[in-house]
Amino acid sequence: MAVPKKKTSKAKGRSRRASAWTLRPSSRSTCPRCGDVRRPHRVCGNCGWYAGRQAVDVD
Question: For residue 12, is it within any domain?
Answer without folding.
Answer: no
